[in-house]
Amino acid sequence: MRKIGRNDPCPCGSGKKFKKCHQGKEDALFLDGFDKAGIEEMGARITRLPPVDYGRSREMADGLDMAKIIGKEVGIRFVDFEAYAAMKLFGNGFERADSEEEKGGIFINPYKTLTADPKNVYLAISKGVDDGILIHEIAHVLDYLGGSQLVPGTLDPIALELEVPLEHLEHPEEFGHWLDYLKKKFDVSLDADDTIIAYLHENQLLIKGKEIQSRNGLILRAKSDRILRFLHEHSQELDQRIRNLPGYIGKRIYKD
User: Which of 64, 66, 85, 161 could form a disulfide with 99 if both were Cys (CB 3.0 to 4.6 A apart)?
Assistant: First the structure.
């Protein structure tokens, strides 16, 4: 995807500049290509997928008192990953089509299902989903509903425009809080990537959701650079933490 500048025409086709149209509302952008009937049909197709309970998915969802922890009566429903991927409803590039089986799960953009089923959010998970993947995706749900309100897979335009690593935007401080909460509640061992996120959260280095929502390039680049410097300075300690964990791909090299 090319970088979308503030003064570029908005990808929705409105004829307006991006800054005057969908900048800050990228998560809903793909819906503007559909009329109301099209949106409703798309949501209906997703919500008609049969529910699944792979791994500990149902146990975890049922174990969360959503009204208590986020103040909202919202349910989590799980559908088959391959069945969802086969529908090819990934939008216009703002929700990445990571459909490989080993990925294990994806938080379906709630704008797709809001009209058809406003009382639930949907996660697509694979048959082989493990506990680590489940709490990662459920942490995204809790972060969206009771945290930063950011949707993973919708922040690519901001990352490209501001030249900030996407992973720094998709895993804000609030996500780190929920990841830690779920890890402890369900006694789950994190994989290598989530251990890095947890390490940054422990050291209060994850970017706050409100800072990401502000789209202030100076602040976000400074925060991102601080993360990279910290990881570089603590690379030996971090490597010791993750070297025996699932997802370890060798010693990470972080540039200043």
Answer: 85
